[in-house]
Amino acid sequence: MGNNVALNTKYDGNSDYDDAAVTDNSRSYRPCSLDELVARTKFDKKEIQVIYQGFKQECPSENNLGIVNEQTFKNIFGQFFPFGDTSKYAHLIFSTFDLRSSGIVTFEDFLIGLSTLCRGTIEDRLKWVFKLYDTKKTGRLTKDDFHVIVCAVYSLLDNISNHYNDYITIQEHTATVFQKFDKLHQGYITIEDFIKICTQDPIIVQSIEALRGAI
Amino acid sequence: MASVAAWLPFARAAAIGWVPLAKHPLPPPPFRISRPGVSPSSPSTSTTSATTTSIGERRCDEKIIINVSGRRFECWRSTLEKYPESLLGSNEKEFFYDEDTREFFFDRDPDVFRVILNFYRTGKLHYPRHECIAAYDEELAFFGILPDIIGDCCYEDYRDRKRENTERLIDDRLHEDDDKIQPKPLSSRESMWRAFENPNTSTMASVFYYVTGFFIAVSVIANVLDTVACGPDPETGYSRSCGERFSRQFFCLDTACVMIFTVEYFLRLYAAPDRLKFVRSVMSVIDVVAIMPYYISLFMPHKGEVSGAFVTLRVFRVFRIFKFSRHSQGLRVLGYTLKSCASELGFLLFSLTMAIIIFATVMYYAEKTVVSTKFTSIPAAFWYTIVTMTTLGYGDMVPKTWAGKLVGGVCSLSGVLVIALPVPVIVSNFSRIYHQSQRADKMKAQRKARQTRIRLARNATSNAFVAAKRRHEQHFDDSNASGDKNIVNPFESQHHHLLRCLELTTDREFVEMGPDMLMNSGGGASLAAGNSAMAGFTNFGSRSGRFLLHPRAWWCCKSRRRRKNSCKFNIERKNTNNANVSGDEIDAEIGDFQLPLTINPYNSSTLSPNIIIPPQEMPYQGNSTSSLQYNVVLHSNANEPLLPATNRFDLNLPLGTVNRTQLNRKANSLMAVYEHSSVNDTGKGESASKSDTYRARSPSSVSDSTFRRTTHVQIIDKDTHEAV
């Protein structure tokens, strides 16, 4: 998919929005047309409309640029998990949605990600999860990657920085999970292994189904 | 909170990242996909079949029309339901529903309603400046919205106007009921102090006020007249001052004044609530300085009245005029201003000094050549410079050379500038401080209280949320077939489901917090850790395989001690009879109390009456063979005083819905609820049946949910502490 083609931005230049979008208020970002989005994702028109309305409202109001940044993600998660610290988790999710690693998530990125998660096949979703875990984009998951994600998930519950016991729990949890996936004891997990192990585990498949289907 | 519902699907979708980490399988989603042939739990690889279902569910969010005095507002139902504690978000709005026009009609102010509806939409409550504060408050109260959540952009304005209004009302009321006030009887000391501080509280006080004022004036005038020339001295022919002529009369007058001042001072000293503070205060220092010279002069030998020290003491008598500052608010503010404008005054002085030195030096050297010049030295030239810079121009020293005249001209011009600059700053300071002096302390106290209230409310909301979530889980678990899913907000149920997934991923539970966490921490629910750390745990068993519950501990608040699942009600700090349960040592350490409760199983017709604290009054169902003795361990948090509302706790068990709500109301977010169960001596071997019977109850409160869980608890015999 030609990202440059699809994004009808009002300003010229390449897809590097980082400085421009933030500093120049006059450039507001408009997503490409509804039909194109319907074609590119698995949603239909009505659904995209609903999603866009919500998306637009959450954009930082001072710029109103039609994009979200990591801080917005953090706030959004903060509304759902009011008890904990959502920054780590938000960072991970953000970098997974941010297809071009540009530091911002446009509506297209958001929609594509959401389409994969809600309407994609199990394989697609597992690939997405792999991408989520693989923060360094090496194509392999190590124990550190798991540690990062486990920390992030635990920090959603509560601010763990005070609790030493939780740190031990996290270590144990990380070890358990890594062991489950690293059947060959290679020290790393490739995407094929990951997908294979997940699809063979009925609990995981069932859990994935439990989270599906919501718009 | 603008479009939280819109982002919920995103959050749920992103939760897929937890799946490989989860220790337990995640529960199925709360909504049903209504399309036939698609079952929620089948790992279907074709995805398009589920396309339209959830959109359909979302579109069942209908548009509501609200008619406020003729002006129609429309919004989504889900917008209003964001704040379920308010009128519009709860079922209370059904009272205003008009069947004929199918809209909600409110006979209120539409302008203010616009603001209120915007609050639902955007999450921020604004205060429109042109509105009357009382009308606004009324509307907010009607719609069940607390003014504390007014956004920061408008909050200061709101607070200012509210305070002005209340002050004005209080003033008016004070003037009205001046005579009618019958306060609670104060001690004589307190009433005296009140009289001193507030002369309008009683007639005596104002009489006292005016009398002292009069005598201050008399004393000051006497001091002044003391020095007026009164006629020639018959002996020496020189004119005498009146003080010398009528020395005895003046002495009597002075004595009278000083006596009154002394009495007043000692009365104030006696009445002051904090004597040390009073002695150190400025006013008392002035009082002392005003009357000391008299006493000193009494004790001094009557040598010459012109001796230096004596004269100095007389000078101090003029300080009596400062006593007027008690009578004048403006004087006090002036004094405070000068104190607070110290930096501006210092700047003024410093710049003046610099200029004086410069000009005096130049002047001196310019006039040095003149014969018999007055500018004999630089310090002598200081006087000239000061007089010129302040544009006084006495004319006792004038420059004669043209250079000196030039410098003198420049000096006077610059003087005007240098002095004029800091003065407006001081003036504006005075005005600002005068207004602020009335507000500063009040605002500070209010802000702190407000922050605490907001924090409490936020924690209460989050705790209520956790409670609601648990309720929904029970509900969902129990009554799959029951039709009351309709009353459950779909957004909320999805949110609960999401949090449930998180819990299962990490093997933790959300628990309400006790008051200590409420006060100290900024928020957050404490967590019940997983089973790994616990010893001596009771088995929950599995609940029809739906939620695979491992044995869990119920922690209390921040104390991370191991204990058997004990229930704690933060209810009352009364030490009851105690402790035949495990965990005695814990109880002793943190001051837990135990309260034996008797609960009868559901199928028993003889339901136990209200169980009321203290347990000494509690009817003990000793011989009931089917009663469970629950030992309720009261956890007392020694740091935080319990709210008075929670002091009396009536536990009605088993709980019908009425009692359930009562319990719910009382076992509110401020309490951490734990239960410890044990069986009395006769209730053996009935655990199994009890668990079934308890299941049938529809839980609606926090304690119910814990109640439910404990039904699977291994019943431990109270006496022998072994499982039955």
Automatic annotation (TrEMBL), chain A:
EF-hand domain location:
85-120, 121-156
Keyword Transmembrane helix carried by entry: no
Determine if Repeat is one of this entry's keywords. yes
Please give the PROSITE patterns that the UniProt record associates with this protein: EF_HAND_2
What domain of life is recorded for the organism? Eukaryota
Matches recorded under InterPro entries: EF-hand-dom_pair, EF_hand_dom, Recoverin
**What is the designated name of this protein?**
EF-hand domain-containing protein
Stored CDD domains:
EFh (cd00051)
Checking PANTHER family in the record gives: CALCIUM BINDING PROTEINS (PTHR23055), EF-HAND DOMAIN-CONTAINING PROTEIN (PTHR23055:SF167)
Q: Which UniProt keywords apply?
A: Metal-binding, Repeat
Per its record, what are the GO molecular function terms? calcium ion binding
Species: Rotaria socialis
User: Which SMART domains did the record assign?
Assistant: EFh
UniProtKB/TrEMBL annotation, chain B:
Record GO cellular component, one term: voltage-gated potassium channel complex
For this protein, the record's InterPro entries field holds: BTB/POZ_dom, Ion_trans_dom, K_chnl_volt-dep_Kv, K_chnl_volt-dep_Kv4, K_chnl_volt-dep_Kv4_C, Shal-type_N, SKP1/BTB/POZ_sf, T1-type_BTB
Region described as Disordered:
32-55, 679-724
Please state where this protein is localized.
Membrane
SMART domains found in the cross-reference section = BTB
Q: Which domain of life is it from?
A: Eukaryota
The way it spans or sits in the membrane comes to:
Multi-pass membrane protein
Kindly list the biological process annotations in GO that this record carries. Answer: action potential; protein homooligomerization
Record has Membrane as a keyword:
yes
The secretion signal range is none
Q: What Gene3D superfamilies does the database record attribute to this sequence?
A: 1.10.287.70, Potassium Channel Kv1.1, Chain A, Voltage-gated potassium channels. Chain C
Using the UniProt record, give the first listed, main subcellular location.
membrane
Q: Where along the chain is composition biased (Low complexity)?
A: 39-54
Q: Which Pfam families match?
A: BTB_2 (PF02214), DUF3399 (PF11879), Ion_trans (PF00520), Shal-type (PF11601)
Q: Does the keyword DNA-binding apply?
A: no
Q: Which GO terms describe its molecular function?
A: A-type (transient outward) potassium channel activity
Q: Which UniProt keywords apply?
A: Ion channel, Ion transport, Membrane, Potassium, Potassium channel, Potassium transport, Transmembrane, Transmembrane helix, Transport, Voltage-gated channel
* Sequence ranges of Basic and acidic residues compositional bias: 683-695, 715-724
Q: Which residues cross the membrane?
A: 207-229, 250-272, 278-296, 345-366, 406-427
Domain BTB positions: 60-129
Protein name per its UniProtKB record: BTB domain-containing protein
